């Protein structure tokens, strides 16, 4: 099988983007907003807390959890302006689910990805209610972005947060260790323009169906990022073809 005679070389983003060793901002998939070591996106439709949690629940990504005053301020500032573009600035419409709940009715909260109780909370006056039925937490315009608890079936906006790892991708080489320009054909989900392998890898990472990607060099500095619905092991090896100006990466 293909994997037996292919050596896997690990390459870093240094090679991939060919630009520099350090980045001030993470490289986020298209449509996501970079802040510190994470990427953020507003879900464009209102939905209940469970639905928002499910939509955001992908590898490395979850419903947003503000972990500091700075992150709270960033999330509310950016997401409020995006919500306003969709529904206007009515105080009753601008509410954003976060990844925290109060199902034990202690008011102490449980937040996605946080061990134990969260170190940062931002309750508004009069919240939390420690009664049953108000178990999911939202940021609310009427409290200037501070938190209130709410029935989990209410429909609000939500936002996802994706941690950015220094994720490495596998570039496949032949038995002599040389890179083989090759790509997986007939498995594409979508094509995007991308600066390099990290941007393309993030896009693949953010797309649940994406298991690998092709990076096509088109002209001098244009790259096309092609997301595939199968990895090299899952796909029929016949579709992994030698193609000049194309490189293939398993996620
Ligand atoms: Ca966070
Ligand atoms: Ca509760």
Automatic annotation (TrEMBL):
**Which intervals hold domain C-type lectin?**
35-161
Q: What PROSITE patterns does the database record attribute to this sequence?
A: C_TYPE_LECTIN_2
Q: Which organism is it from?
A: Patiria miniata (Bat star)
Name listed for the protein in its UniProt record: C-type lectin domain-containing protein
Signal sequence, start to end: 1-16
The cross-references to InterPro entries, in alphabetical order and at most eight, read:
C-type_lectin-like, C-type_lectin-like/link_sf, C-type_lectin/snaclec_domain, CTDL_fold
CDD domains in the record:
CLECT (cd00037)
Which keywords has UniProt assigned to this entry?
Signal
Question: Which Pfam families does the UniProt entry name for this protein?
Answer: Lectin_C
